[in-house]
């Protein structure tokens, strides 16, 4: 299986020769890059959870803190059976790059527990969340490391973790976690922020290439928070979302999909593949696999599930004109090369899905100041940052004649390396 962390390091390596010429002291630059390719700290934990039946079960957990030269560590916490040290190291690296891409003052982090949350009761999940926050307490905080929700976690888990952390430290510190419920200091607009940020990037790209929204066909792989909100908002903005999938499979309709109807169906029946046996829906949709979705002839393909979705094996089958990466690390470096050779623009994850961490930054700022903004103000601020980031990346792409991904990485690595040098770390 492809190592996500090896991919993350390769992406940094790919732009070092492009950026080296901008530094007088080449040795110092290479030393900084070497530091950038490993997290500053990786925390491994063993959590002993008391189950409802009185038995005790152990779970492995991690937190990778990648680089804090530009500000406190920042990154989500996921609950998933595939969580590993390799994965959190990769995701924390991408978070450092992402925060630098959009110019917010954080470094990258990522954490997770190796667990299938579907196998735990709600009280068990609460105890596990509480335990994780307690064990991490000395390593996190508003000016140290600011966690947030990720795969299979949300505002509920952040509320539990915040309570656990505050009990441990003995004072209120809402800015320690973002993605919290509004009632606990969460920001307006945070739930849909990642999807909305992706839409803003799509709008910038569409304007650049001269396409009309109503003629743009989109396929979205993944129907979690990010995939749902991106599909819903893109559809509302006049784009034609023709295919969408969850982990079990997907649905296709060349005339476009009603995202809210599909969300209600998934809520009721659990997965899109259930459409096969629900006769009242069958005629409206063609049931497809995730692999078939990736190979659809669409204008924009949106991988919005987990990493390594597009690989050397399936990249040759991709017929989309453009790929908008809404998941973290959905394209392997080998696949990236094939897509570029095919003339497919790949707009990278570190730009496309940065809306979430940007509004998390807004939440942190609001918590620290005790002053809160309305949703219109949040969305306006988000649009300004996403538009600016796209503009800077496109300018770098045009100037250096390189891909969108390399442009994003070149800009981000320069910002982080400069901060490291200014601090005297290298």
Description:
- This protein is an alpha/beta fold and 426 residues long.
- Helices cover 46% and strands 16% of the residues.
- Among the domains are: 37-175, Leucine Dehydrogenase, chain A, domain 1 (Rossmann fold, 3-Layer(aba) Sandwich), CATH 3.40.50.10860; 193-347, NAD(P)-binding Rossmann-like Domain (Rossmann fold), CATH 3.40.50.
- The strands form two sheets. The protein has a seven-stranded mixed beta sheet with strand order 9-8-7-6-10-11-12. Strands 1-2-4-3-5 form a five-stranded mixed beta sheet, with helices on both faces.
- Strand 3, helix 3 and strand 4 (107-114) form a beta-alpha-beta unit.
- Helix 1 packs parallel to helix 3 (85-101) and helix 1 (4-20) crosses helix 15.
- The chain is globular, with a radius of gyration of 21 Å.
- It starts with a helix and ends with a helix.
